[in-house]
């Protein structure tokens, strides 16, 4: 049972939090001022402290500083009626886990408390956390602890020692090339070349010469023999990205390489034998392309000996926090900044975002945020997400379809959009968002619950 200390000079707040947290199964102790609370901390161990920011004699920030001296492992959440970015930065600089507004949603507060207590378990054993991250990146710097990624890691371990061809399936930005590198690096071919070529980014004639090479005089400008990528990859691995874009003529030539381990250079008459492992990848539906005749069925089955599907980031949201941590550390070092973490409101935005660009998009978002952030914590205003909320201009340009619309549904959608925009502009502060919308806090809270806004 986690032990929580509630510190507030308002008796009503203390009693409310004590009842609510007791119902959640926590052992709750209350104090009406910071001095009494600090004395309790010197005698007892608390897992979490919920403290008011504005208190007589000793305020929440100074109390937080004292707590970190007495019991540095205790997680502290500040409660305030006047949330602002400056408050967040000040609190985080002094070691607070988070801060919440006093008009908090009960379920939101419960979740923040649960998350803080979970993180306390991680902080107790930083070495274990570091080992877990190292384990997660051991496959070509891939990170993730979700069920889907653990399945990918398991498949890599099984297939890497074999010579089997692998087809990697997944949306753009999921890390298909990282999976291919991991297979190569964990295989007996790891000391041989790993060569990458994008089949969709080169014209058909140039792609043929890149893959198979050419002999002197094969065409105008062929002044000397060229080996080609298959010859250069001898003994190693060749990664054919966007394999679905391979032109029909080259599909025939690739099939020969797969089946007979031989090929001919452009303009050549001599068969060249090559030992190369082929790993392919695509973000398209190859089954559909086989059915419509644009991709050879025999080649598909030869390449698809071992399929590996990488789940999109929106289906493994439990990986977003650890990925975010990794990218913050990476770009803080690269940009020589001291950014240590991300605010809980900013993390909520990331967890709600669908990430059409997957891990690549998340990395770009964090890189940009670290570059723009001037404090040591990433705040929502520097977290530039695109595509998750339509622009208000689109509401103005709304055209009524011929069969009409449900007015209440449309108004609800637009109302939700405007409220989300206001909350984002207010950096997550519902009090400030209510001011921007010229409604009362109670009215905004009702609308948030009615519309299911997180």
Q: Provide the domain count.
A: 3
CATH T-level topology of the largest domain: Rossmann fold
Strand proportion: 5-15%
Tell me the overall shape. Answer: elongated
Q: How far apart lie the N and C ends? A: 28 Å
- Tell me the CATH superfamily of the largest domain: P-loop containing nucleotide triphosphate hydrolases
- CATH architecture assignment name of the largest domain: 3-Layer(aba) Sandwich
Helix- and strand-based class? Answer: alpha/beta
- Tally of individual helices: 20
Helix fraction?
40-55%
The whole-angstrom Rg is 29 Å
- Main pleated-sheet profile: 5 strands, parallel
Strand order of the largest sheet: 2-1-3-4-5
**What's the count of strands?**
14
Q: What's the CATH class of the largest domain, please?
A: Alpha Beta
Low-confidence stretches: 122-134, 387-397
Average pLDDT metric: 83
Task: Provide structural commentary.
The protein has 454 residues and is an alpha/beta fold. The protein folds into 3 domains: 3-124, Response regulator (Rossmann fold, 3-Layer(aba) Sandwich); 147-309, P-loop containing nucleotide triphosphate hydrolases (Rossmann fold), CATH 3.40.50.300; 315-451, Orthogonal Bundle (Helicase, Ruva Protein, domain 3). It has 20 helices and 14 strands. It has helices at residues 11-23, 34-43, 60-70, 85-93, 106-123, 126-136, 147-159, 176-185, 204-212, 229-232, 248-260, 286-291, 297-303, 320-334, 344-352, 358-372, 392-396, 407-425, 430-437, 441-451, and strands at residues 3-7, 27-31, 48-52, 75-80, 98-101, 166-169, 194-198, 237-241, 262-263, 272-273, 277-282, 306-309, 341-342, 377-378. The model is unreliable at 122-134 and 387-397 (pLDDT under 50).
């Amino acid at each position: 049972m986690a032990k929580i200390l509630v510190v507030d000079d308002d008796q009503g707040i203390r009693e409310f939090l004590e009842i609510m947290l007791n119902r959640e199964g926590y052992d709750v102790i209350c104090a009406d001022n910071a001095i009494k609370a600090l004395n309790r901390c010197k005698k007892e161990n608390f897992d979490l402290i919920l403290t008011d920011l504005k208190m007589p004699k000793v305020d929440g920030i100074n109390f937080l500083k004292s707590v970190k001296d007495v019991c540095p492992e205790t997680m502290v959440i500040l409660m305030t009626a006047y949330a602002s970015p400056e408050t967040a930065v000040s609190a985080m600089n002094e070691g607070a886990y988070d801060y919440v507004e006093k008009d908090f949603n009960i379920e939101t507060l419960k979740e923040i408390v649960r998350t803080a207590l979970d993180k306390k378990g991680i902080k107790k054993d930083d070495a274990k956390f570091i080992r877990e991250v190292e384990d997660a990146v051991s496959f070509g710097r891939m990170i993730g602890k979700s069920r889907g990624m653990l399945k990918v890691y398991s498949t890599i371990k099984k297939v890497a020692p074999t010579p089997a061809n692998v087809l990697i399936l997944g949306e753009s930005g999921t890390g298909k090339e990282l999976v291919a590198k991991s297979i190569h690096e964990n295989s007996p071919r790891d000391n041989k070349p790993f060569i990458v070529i994008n089949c969709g980014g080169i014209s058909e004639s140039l792609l043929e010469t890149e893959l198979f090479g050419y002999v002197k005089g094969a065409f105008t400008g062929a002044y000397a023999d060229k080996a080609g990528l298959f010859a250069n990859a001898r003994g190693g691995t060749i990664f054919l990205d966007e394999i679905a874009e391979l032109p029909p003529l080259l599909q025939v030539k690739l099939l020969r390489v797969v089946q007979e381990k031989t090929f001919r250079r452009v303009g050549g008459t001599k068969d060249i034998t090559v030992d190369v492992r082929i790993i392919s990848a695509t973000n398209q539906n190859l089954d559909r392309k086989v059915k419509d005749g644009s991709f050879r069925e025999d080649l598909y089955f030869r390449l698809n000996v071992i399929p590996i599907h990488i789940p999109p980031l929106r289906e493994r949201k439990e990986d977003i926090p650890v990925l975010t941590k990794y990218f913050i550390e990476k770009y803080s070092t690269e940009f020589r900044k001291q950014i240590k973490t991300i605010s809980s409101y900013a993390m909520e935005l990331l967890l709600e975002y669908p990430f059409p660009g997957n891990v690549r998009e998340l990395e770009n978002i964090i890189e940009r945020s670290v570059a723009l952030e001037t404090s040591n914590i990433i705040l929502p205003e520097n977290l530039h997400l695109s595509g998750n909320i339509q622009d208000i201009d689109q509401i103005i340009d709304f055209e009524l379809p011929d069969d009409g619309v449900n007015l209440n549904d449309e108004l609800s959608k637009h109302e939700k959009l405007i409220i989300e925009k206001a909350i984002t502009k207010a950096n997550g502060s519902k009090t400030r968002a209510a001011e921007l919308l010229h409604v009362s806090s109670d009215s905004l809270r009702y609308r948030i619950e009615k519309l299911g806004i997180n």
